[in-house]
Amino acid sequence: MRYFITVILFFLLISVDAQDSLSNLLDKEMSTKMAGKKQYTYATFKGTQLVNSRTVETIGKGDLDFRVSHRFGDIGGQFGGEKSFFGLENSTDVKISFDYGITNRLTAGVSRSKGATSVRQLYEVSLKYKLLRQTDGHTMPFTVTAYSNVVVTSMSSNAKANTPDHFNSFGDRLSFANQLLIARKFSDNFSLMLVPSWVHTNYVIHNDQNDIFAIGIGGRVKLTKRMALVADYFKVFRNKTSINNFENDGLSFYNPLGIGVEFETGGHVFDFTFTNSTAIMENQFIPYTTTSWRQWRFRWGFNLSRIFSLKKNK
Amino acid sequence: MKKVRTILAALLILSAVAGNAQGKWFTRNGKINFFSKTNGENIDADNNEVFSMIDPVKNEMAFQVLNTGFKFHKALMQEHFNENYMESSKYPKASFKGNFTDPSKIDFTKDGTYKVLVAGDLTMHGETKKINIPATIIVAGGKVSGESKFNIKLADYDIKIPSVVSNQISEDVAVTVKCQYEAYK
Predict the structure, then answer these.
(1) ipTM of the predicted structure?
(2) Which residue of B has its CA nearest to A104?
(3) What angle do CA B69, B72, B74 make, to 5 degrees?
(4) C-alpha gyration radius of chain B
(5) Which of A172, A279, A297, B27 fits A291 for a cystine, CB–CB 3.0-4.6 Å?
(6) For chains A and B, what is the number of CB pairs under 8 angstroms?
(7) What is the Cα–Cα distance from A119 to A103, expressed in whole angstroms?
C-alpha cells in the first residue's frame, strides 16, 4: 500500500512540476498544428516581369498592375554612339499594359506596344494562370505558371507580297505566345526560372517559320532587401534552313539576353535593364532578335510597374 | 488503511474534476489585429491563429503567432509585410511571455471582469523588448477570455520604413489581442 501511495504521489508531483514551460508547450502545440498545413512560398519574384521574360508571379485578386516598358536604340554600332546619344534618342519599342487579378492565381491582361519588327501597332490580350505553387518544405518544389497571349496588329497592310506586314485577312494579323514558367525560390536571395516557350505567327514570309520554340532561363539575386540583379536568356530553336536563308539576305538572328537591376519601393517595381533584343513582346523578341551584344547593338531599357488596388478599403 | 484509500480516491477525483479550476488555460485560435493609420493608406491585418496559454498557479502567460498567418486586405501588402518588414523566413514567429503584475487581483475560479496589468517580453523580428500593457480578463461560467489593446513602435523592433513609403506606414502600430480560452488538457 505504501508503495501504491508513493507511486500515486509521484505521478501527482510529475503532473505538477515536470511540465515544460509555457513557451515550450506552445511551441509543441504550434508545430503539431503546422505539420499538416501548407505554407506557400511568397515573392519568388518581385512583379510579373524580369528583364525580357515574364515571371511566375500573378497579380493579387482585385489588384491592377499598370506597366510601362521602354527599349531605347542601339548603344553602339552604326545607329548608336554620340549621334543618337548612345541610343537614348531612339526608341525601338514601348509597351503599356494593364493586368488585373481575377483571382490570386488568374491574371488577365491587355497591352499596346509599338512593335519592333516591321510588324507594329500591336494589341495584346493575355491570360496567366498559376498551376502549381511552391511550398516551404518539400511537398511542392516549384511554382508553375502558364501564360498565353493573342497579339493583333492594327497597321495597314503592305501592298507588296511576301513582306512580314502583308495581310490578306484578319487572321494574318495574329500571333500567339505560349509559355510555361517554372520557377523555384531557393532562398530569400535567389530565385531561378525556366521558360519553355512557343511562338506561333499566323503569317510569315517565305523563308520564315510559323512556329518557333525557345527555352528561357532567368534568375534573380537580391543584393539588398529592395534591390536585386535580374537576368534572362532565351535559347531560340530556329531551323538551319531558315537561318541560312535569312543570312544569305544579310540578316542574322541572335538569342536575347537581358540583364538589369531591380528596385522595389512599396507598390512600385522599377527595372533598369540592358538587352540586345529590340522588342518587348515575346511574339517578337523570341523569333526576331537581329541585334547582337557583340556588335554593341544592345540598349538601355526600363520596366516600370505600379500596383493599384481596386478593392474598397474595409 | 481504508481511510487512506478513501483519501486517495477523493484526491484523484478532486484532481481530475476540480483540477482545472487552477489548471492552465489555452487557445489555438485567439485573434490579433494590427492597425496603422496614415494619410496615405490604412494598414489593417488579422490573424486568427494566436496560440496562447495562461498558468494561473505560476502566474505566467505566453503568446505565439506566425507572421505568415496575418491576412491583409491587399495581397501585395501581405507580401511586403513578410518579405520586407517582418522577414518571416528568418523570423517566422512573434511571441510574448509575461505575467500579471498583481496576480492577487484575479480569481480564475470566480466569475468577474478583472482589469489588470501585464508585464513581459515581446519578441518579433529578432528583437525583444519589455512592455507593460493593460488587459481585461473575463471569467464567466467556467470560461476565461482575455483582451488587450496596446501600441508598439516599429523602430523598437528594428523594422525600418524606407523614406519613400514613410507617408504610407505609420511608425506607431495599434495592436489588439482577443483570446477565448479553454481548459488545457
Answers:
(1) 0.76
(2) B75
(3) 140
(4) 20
(5) A297
(6) 95
(7) 33
Distance CA(A95)–CA(A149), nearest Å, equals 15
Between B1, B26, B82, which is nearest A42 by CB? B82
pTM here?
A: 0.83
Question: What is the structure's pLDDT at B19?
Answer: 45
In three-state secondary structure terms, B80 is helix
What torsion do the CA atoms of B91, B94, B99, B105 make, to the nearest 10 degrees?
A: 180
Alpha-carbon distance A102 to A154, whole Å? 27
For A219-240, write each residue's pLDDT tens digit: 999 999 889 999 999 999 999 9
Give chain B positions within 8 Å (CB) of A30.
28, 51, 64, 66, 93
What's the pLDDT score for residue A35?
78
The residues facing A272 across adjacent strands are A261, A302
Min distance A272 CA to chain B CA atoms (Å): 18
Q: Which of A5, A29, A61 sits opposite B51 (nearest CB)?
A: A29
Per the document, the length of chain B is 185
On whether the CB atoms of residues B72 and A104 are closer than 8 A, the answer is no
Are B24 and A29 in contact (CB < 8 Å)?
no
CB-based contact B79 A42, cutoff 8 Å:
yes
Whole-number Å distance between alpha carbons of A183 and A163? 38
Give the helix/strand (H/E) hosting A305.
strand A299-309
d(CA A193, CA A180): 10
Radius of gyration of chain A (CA): 26
Q: Does the beta-carbon distance from A22 to B61 stay under 8 Å?
A: yes
Q: Check if the beta carbon of residue B17 is closer than 8 Å to that of residue B155.
A: no
CA angle A222, A307, A191 (to 5 degrees): 25
Nearest CA in chain A to B84: A225
Do A188 and B12 make contact, defined as CB atoms within 8 angstroms? Answer: no
What the block records as the C-alpha cell of A235 is 535559347
